[in-house]
Design brief:
By secondary structure, the chain is mainly α. 75% of the residues lie in helices and 0% in strands. It is elongated, with a radius of gyration of 21 Å.
Length: 189
């Protein structure tokens, strides 16, 4: 595959974003990836300091079907705490839709501690129900650090989030009760 046009579009993006936008470069670049442009060029774009370039790269990854987003889960998850709404949205979408099975287990284990309270709260208030569900799971994983988030989730309008949060709070309350009973028994002895 001749990658000349795709590489030319990437250079225009890096040097003149306004020209890139006016020429609908985002859709053209997406088309080049569908036609075989090396997806490794996206890794370079994801490392750019410029948030517009990173957001575009994440959007392209999210549009390329099932296999490509799986190849970029680590990079997408690392961008979920960005304060740019587009970067947050596309990176969360990639992780939420494609981070299942072992990928989601890895995501939860590796990245959950890097989520901030505001990042988790943003997930819980997302328009996307899948992201809200991952948000309540994340809230339960960082309960010790941010207990208020799971407690607030109990009143969520999303019934799935609400049910999960209620079960989590009840379980933690029961564990605390058992722990207190155990400590009382130890003192009596």
């Amino acid at each position: 595959m001749d990658e000349t046009n795709g590489l030319r579009l990437i250079e225009i993006l890096k040097k003149d974003k306004e020209k890139f936008r006016k020429e609908h470069g985002g859709y053209q670049l997406l088309e080049e990836y569908f036609n075989g442009l090396s997806k490794e060029t996206l890794r370079e774009l994801l490392c750019y300091e410029d948030k517009d370039i990173r957001a575009l790269a994440l959007w392209i990854i999210s549009e390329l079907g099932k296999e490509t987003p799986k190849d970029f889960l680590g990079e997408a998850a690392a961008q979920m705490n960005d304060d740019d709404p587009a970067i947050y949205r596309y990176s969360s979408e990639i992780v939420a839709w494609y981070g299942t099975g072992k990928y989601m287990d890895d995501f939860m284990r590796i990245y959950i501690d890097t989520l901030t309270a505001s990042g988790i709260t943003a997930m819980l208030h997302s328009d996307d129900s899948v992201i809200r569900k991952y948000g309540v799971i994340a809230a339960s994983k960082v309960y010790e650090k941010y207990p208020e988030i799971i407690n607030e989730s109990v009143t969520s309008e999303d019934l799935d989030v609400q049910d999960y949060a209620k079960r989590e709070v009840r379980a933690r309350d029961r564990i605390a009760q058992l722990d207190a009973q155990w400590r009382n028994c130890k003192r009596k002895q």
